[in-house]
Amino acid sequence: MSPLEGSNPSLSATQDGASPRRPSLAGMQLRYWVGMMVAAFGWGTGGLAVRAALEEGVGAWTVVALRIGIAAVAVAALLAAQRKLAKPSAMSVRVGLVMALFNLAIPYVLFTFAYDNASAGFVGLLSALIPLATAIFANAMLPAEPLTAAKITGLAVGFVGVGALLLSGDSGLASGGRPLLSIVLSVLSVASIGYAGVYAKKHSGEYDPTAITGIQFLVAGLLMFVTMLAIEGVPSGISGAGWAMLLYAALVSTVLPFTIFYRLVAHLQATTLSLIGYMVPVVALVGGVLVLSEQIQPGMVVGGILIAFGVVLTDRADRKAAAAAIPH
Questions:
Q1: Bridge partners (DSSP) listed for residue 21
Q2: What is the pLDDT of residue 211?
Q3: Which of 10, 97, 263, 265 is the most buried (most CB within 10 A)?
């Protein structure tokens, strides 16, 4: 059972015919918080699984293709079980294609190669920049969400944190690693995700969210599978541990958090959901140390604090703007 199953606050009748009872507010809030933590755990440990698969000798393109491909099969099965497979509208197809490319294919490829050049904790810190990238694209694409002085300050602080990571030369690995390449790949991935999120928001209400979920996984899976065959060929010689990491990355770090997140959207405010973004880097950082013996180096501490502070400043500015927009 998922942590959110049964969280619908609608009334339910008791077996003895007595008057229905509404679940307690505390109980529902607990389910939501558990759901948020499980989603953060799934996304945060995704990098650990990817790095472990790469260390098992699985090619980077194969990791991406099989991760998204397995996730696509699982998503299709879930939609079929829920009888939500239907002919999508033209707008759903359009948004789904954009999300397939910019929310899955591009960032998954870039992040995978980033993990091959730095620790999961290092890349996890950079993934925290997604809200900042979203604010930049929102300024350009959503007239109602312009950059304010507070947001610009948050952006500046966040990118100073990236600069601190770069100047430190730390990668979170005991030896080796190419932090500059990892930063470039991660920032491009963050920008891709930020654009996808704003594009979807710009067209919200014009498409079926269920339809674009299926479309983006199907299209991205097919695209990555063809790319894998062209570059690395048919997968062979993958160890049992390698397959276990691929299944974990696909199911626990992709399908599970996406599924939980979409359920949470119906019950929680966006500002509350944004807390997941604060949890993910912490999970990646701690998990990398405990599971993969990665290191928390001085540059990561300084850069991580600055990035987190920049995200907090931007998030607070968003919350104030949202509160000001509500009629009193």
A1: 12
A2: 83
A3: 263
Element (H, E) at 11: none
Q: To the nearest whole percent, how much of the chain has pLDDT over 70?
A: 86
Two tokens at 190?
A: 């963050």
d(CA 98, CA 193) in angstroms, rounded, equals 11
Question: What are the structure tokens assigned to 16, written together?
Answer: 């003895």
Q: Exposure pattern of 87-103 as b/e (b: 16+ CB <10 Å)? A: ebeeebbbbbebbbbbb
> What count of other Cβ atoms lies within 10 Å of the Cβ of residue 229?
14
Cite the DSSP H helix spans in the chain. 25-55, 60-81, 90-99, 106-115, 120-127, 130-141, 149-168, 179-202, 209-231, 240-247, 256-265, 270-273, 275-292, 298-325
Q: Tokens in use for 115?
A: 């993990």
Q: CA 87 to CA 210: how far, in whole Å? A: 11
Compute φ and ψ for 154, nearest 5 degrees.
-60, -45
Interacting residues of 179 by C-beta distance below 8 A, sequence separation 6+: 117, 118, 122, 165, 166, 168, 169, 170, 171
Q: How far apart are CA 208 and CA 219, in angstroms?
A: 16
| Six token digits for residue 100 | 């397939």
Q: What is the mean pLDDT of residues 180-194?
A: 94
Q: What is the pTM of this model?
A: 0.81
pLDDT, tens digit, 9 for 90 and up, residues 224-273: 999 999 999 999 999 999 999 999 999 999 999 988 887 787 677 666 77
The token pair at 12 is 């339910």
Does pLDDT of 4 surpass 50? no
* Block residue for tokens 């009748």: 13
* Those residues with Cβ within 8 angstroms of residue 95's Cβ, 6 or more apart along the chain or in another chain: 199, 200, 203, 206, 207, 212
Element (H, E) at 166: helix 149-168
